[in-house]
Each structure stands twice: as structure tokens, then as C-alpha cells.
Write a structure and sequence with these properties.
alpha/beta, 3 helices, 15% strand
Length: 137
């Protein structure tokens, strides 16, 4: 019983093990057998042809300003406070609904701007924005 003798030579095996390769190929074959009939089942339909044009109707913008005295201006036209709610209701009924941009003077009481916001909410105006001036340095 001698170790390292010539009785058991350590030779490198130079053959490729084909079993894993055959297993992978069989799995791929089964996948293709299952998926090809699914891709072939299609109903041929002659669909009608039509053209359409995208209509981009941009909503108008209403500029509602509140000056330092608390007066209301509708797109640079002075208006009475009694006309505010009916005009906002008329604009809220339009399709598409216009955007309301509120410009409040820095010296006006917040109450006057809050009244405009409450009137717009009661009228059903959904898009309200506030306009400010950028701060200069």
C-alpha cells in the first residue's frame, strides 16, 4: 500500500459532461412547444381606419385683483362686490373651466382676499392660483 505510485495515475478528464446541456435543451424545447400555439391563435379583424385631431382648448385665465382699498378688479375692469358671486358662477359653468388668478395688494386686509376665495369656492371654481411679484434684492 504505497501512496503516489503509478498504479492509480491522476489524469485529467478531457470529456464534456453532456447531461446538463441536454437538460437545458429539453427545458427550452418544452417552453417553445407550449408558447408557439398561444402565439398562433389570433382573430383576424379588419379594423376601421379613422383620423382624429387633438383639440387643445386651453382654458382662459381670469385675473381677479384686490387693490389696497379693497376694491375688486376683474381682468383690469373695476367691479362691484355684489357682482362677484354671479360672475364667478357664470365662469364656473363654462367648459373647460377657466383658472382664477387672485392678485392681492400687500396692503389690503386678508379678509378681502379670503372673501374672494370663499366666493370662488361657493361658485364651484376648481382652479385657483395666487399671483405674487418676485422679491428684488
Amino acid at each position: 500500500m504505497a501512496f503516489g505510485t503509478q498504479d492509480e495515475p491522476d489524469e485529467v478528464m478531457n470529456e464534456i459532461n453532456m447531461t446538463p446541456l441536454v437538460d437545458v435543451m429539453l427545458v427550452l424545447l418544452i417552453i417553445f412547444i407550449i408558447t408557439i400555439p398561444v402565439m398562433k391563435h389570433a382573430v383576424n379583424i379588419d379594423l376601421p381606419r379613422a383620423t382624429n385631431q387633438v383639440q387643445e382648448v386651453k382654458p382662459e385665465t381670469i385675473r381677479l385683483s384686490v387693490d389696497a382699498k379693497g376694491d375688486y378688479w376683474w381682468n383690469e375692469n373695476q367691479m362691484a362686490e355684489a357682482n362677484l358671486v354671479p360672475m364667478l358662477q357664470a365662469e364656473a359653468a363654462k367648459e373647460p373651466q377657466p383658472e382664477l388668478h387672485i392678485r392681492g395688494d400687500k396692503d389690503v386686509r386678508y379678509e378681502r382676499v379670503a372673501q374672494v376665495m370663499a366666493a370662488a369656492q361657493q361658485a364651484g371654481v376648481k382652479k385657483i392660483g395666487f399671483i405674487t411679484e418676485p422679491k428684488t434684492q
